[in-house]
## 1
Amino acid sequence: MRHLSLGVGLLLTGLLVAAALVSFFWTPHPADAIGIARRLRPPSAEHWLGTDQLGRDVLSMIMVGARNSIAVGAVAVGLGMAVGVPLGLLAAARRGWIDEGLSRFADLVFAFPAILSAFLVTALLGPGAINAILAIGVFNVAVFARVARGAAIQVWGRPFVRAALALGRGPVSVTLVHVLPNVSAVLIVQATVAFAVAILAEAALSYLGLGIQPPAPSWGKMLHEAQTFMPMRPTLAIFPGAAIALAVLGLNLLGDGLRDALDPRLRPSRGAG
């Protein structure tokens, strides 16, 4: 029961990934197939989640939208880790002006919420998936740099690191051999949380027309298009909204479960009593 959140998070995240993978070779109907004659149909045996205002199959669009959301989130989080983690480890190892400069950069980025920062970048560079990835990735760089720095500073103060330095190991060797493995659990947990934020930010950008552009399906774009038809077909907004909620919930629960499983301080002591 201690890892219930991990199990539920794995289940929900697994469903998200499975839907995205299956969409590469099968969907109930082509996601971009327009048919005015079948527009705004309710859920049925032919269209399990109904059709939208252009006659497109909603389930097919949600499946392909999952693929696009995962792609944006994965690249944005990967960009944040690839740049932010080395910066954080460097700041922890060198301290001084490097550490101070990184801290001020992080403070500047954190002065604006993640979604607001993404709005600003995409408004300046223009709409599109690439600019959405860049906007979300810039915020993730500061997040991973701050997390890696804080965790690494704690590891640098431990006796085994001081012993390695006393034996003549350089800062690079100590960082790669001792520091990085000991902060990897924290970074993995942060990656799941950042992934959830990236999916939410991508949906918000697409809702405003700044993210993934038509005809590529996007959960946020589906919500935007559904608001006009809410009185006659509310399921058009319910289904993509539920997909966003379940994806974010699953990733957050997965992060909580991984934290409980990977952090030795949260493990129950054995042999007590």
## 2
Amino acid sequence: MDAGPKRNLKIRYILLAGAVLMTILVWSGGWFYMQGVLRDQIDHQMARLAQTGQAVSCTDMPIGGFPFRFEVSCAEPVLADARGRTADFKALRTVALVYKPWHVIAEADGPARFEDPLTGLMGEANWESARSSVIYSTSSVEQIDVVMENVSLAIAGARPEAGLLADGASFHLRPLPGALETLEVFLSLNRADSDMLPSLPEPLDAKLHLQLENGMSLLQGAPFERLRNLSDGSLPFRVAWASVGNQEMAVSATGDLVLDREGRLSGKLDLSLAGVDQLARFAAAIFPGAAANLDAMRGAALSFGQQAADENGRPVVRLPLNLRDGQVNLGFLPLGVLPPISLGGR
């Protein structure tokens, strides 16, 4: 009486084992097939870059991660463009889950070196950790996030030469919610210091948040010039937030600006100055030859601005700035001329 049920149970175990074995074989075959597809796609993308005068090379590029991930390692990567600018660093590793291939996590090892033979600029960057997250759609990149810790940067060939240290740095590109063709750009530095700045009791924090209309097309490979959508070829953008400061002083701004073809800025900014006296001393230490003008600007800011206090109890002066073809004015008082901004056609 018991032989029948035992036999049926044995058959079930055999069928289950067969199903598991078949799943493993199919999964393994699919993984190795997708590995080949990934290899072909990498070669295809490198060939496309080569057609535009850009090149990416690795001394070795294995693809692993079986059975649930795809891991691509690039040893000693070197990047170069048509102008001869190069950058290289120690290693790059990327990971994507088999069931979520559109989300790629990357980690880079420093140091990184870069050189521009046309300008003579060269430098080296290093970090404790550098991680990025890239989310793709069927046609383009949808989001980029980069976070770095304990960053150092040294630039040679510039006059004066510059060095920078920061506890952290981050960079983010993503679409604006509710206006998915608008690109949001976020940059930040945490507790940053530079040998170009006077000695400070506290390092500086810097944040920049820009919005570019139709900027998401850049992530689809469109040239930067396509964003110059005004009739005169100017580039409009919004400064959603920009700030630099520490516990003693801070400068922040919001507003709408336009960059013309000559690299000159025009528009209006709402400026907030926290700790005006400390800011004046800081600026005078950077530009000692302009101490008299800076003192006049401080007086103008206190005269023209609306005074209040921020959440830290620091005195704050709020004032409007007008820019026209690079000329900066506080009301009718001219403050100076900003140097042109060169985007290098990108």
## 3
Amino acid sequence: MRPLIGICSNYNMESGEYCLRDYYVDSLYRAGASAVLLPPVEDLNLLEQYLQVCKGYVFPGGGDVDPFHWGELPGWGLGEINPRRDYFELKLAELIMDRKLPALGICRGCQVLNVAARGSLVQDISSPLRHQQKAPRDYPFHDIVIKPGTLLDKILDEAEIRVNSFHHQAVERPGRGMRISAFAPDGIIEAIESVEAPFILGVQWHPECMRDKASEQLFKALVRAAKTAGN
């Protein structure tokens, strides 16, 4: 029986459309899960239904998180924010963390998990290392170093891997109950994870776009955690 994984969908404020790239769904299918899109909602009763139905969650990539949520004023480098999506994903992430449910955050999703845990973000990275590649989405662009003894280390069993990169924000201060599990050569945090839950992991790259072993292992690990959730 495939576990049902909920993927937070984006919301286009101009067109009023709910949308999500097919990479996420395809990656979950290949890993052995079924997928359902979760439209952003404000009704806590609907959020509760999401939590009752799904066995695991994916927080996907997207636009910037409003720095209001970690107590900062917006800087000049801040990109477009989506208040409806921010509210929904941060509230859902808080509830998931409280209940220690399996979740994988990808790029923006990694940042959402950190802000939901009361951490902070770098609004606009300043580094000699480029973190927004001009290359195909599945091309591994730069190295990251994985911290030994972390959940990410156990999943990948690699000290270093190469990843793609499409972000200008990043985790600055890990939130409560979160630790750093990978970083780039310039010191930018590339992955965080919960020290309190069996599987709450955020990665700054886009494994759904790649077909390497490390990317497959991430989604398979989420599916394994979802199968045992609540047991």
## 4
Amino acid sequence: MTDGAAVGRASRPAGGYAAVLVAAAVWGTTGTATHFAPGVPAFVFGAVTFGLGGILLAATTGRSALHAVARPGTRSWVLLGAVSLVVYAVAFYAALAGAGVALGTTVAIGSSPLFAGLVEWGADGRRVTGRWTVATLVSVVGMVVVTLARSEAPGDGSLLLGLGSALLAGLTYATYSWAVARGMHAASPPVPVPAALSGAVSGSAIGVGGRGVVGAVFGLAAVPLVVLAAVAGRDALAVGGNWPVFAYLALVPTVLGHSLYAVGLRRVSASVATLLSLFEPVVAAVLAVLVVGEHLGALGWVGIALVVLGLALLSLPGRARAAPPQ
């Protein structure tokens, strides 16, 4: 084995960290973007974002998404990922309505790394590292602090139902991440296609690929979400001024963000990726201060420092083995 090959393998987790952190930063712009479409119900943003974005993701992946659905080795992971994504989209916004934005976001996003670790331990027999545990505790505490520093009014619904929905959102987000990671690894070998069907020379092959799995997951999940948006959100959809925001949410946080997240999931485990995604509320808080004019206060900045510290602990070189299961 050459030194270059070893260095290349060693850099894969670092590249995965970077991809997920950029994805989380992109997701963190969502709240600021919704500020420019006032009066739109939260669930409509979710349905339009994942619905329209899912259609675009499926369209950009083309035949590879169809192969991911048709291929026995990836079909079950695609279906599990799609169902998890739909439930997450509904449960997350139900959590915001019932428990309020601050508490609902904290429980949903903060519980997802813990659920991801449990899913990997129960399904794959993979035990989390001590470093991951410490980094998770520090980052979750920091995320709770920064989120509560931006605390808004509680929701209008049942607090108990809101908290239950938030935990369901955390579980389904972790399950989505795990299913996509497993699906992408199952899709790694190329699928042979006869020359008569592929339009190329004999012996050519079409790989399903990681983007094909993500496109298939979002394409399937988009169907019920688009119906939900069309039926329950038709008033918001009829306002032309809302569409620049809808387009941004579909193209940037969904298409770009989840494409980068998929890149990260090829290099790090779902438990690590969901932990890194805790960077999202940090970006959201900073943008709320700089763009929307919110006041964060000293406690909020302490929370941001704790999240960054936890993520820095995770990314220190030479320790954690972050490669996903083969």
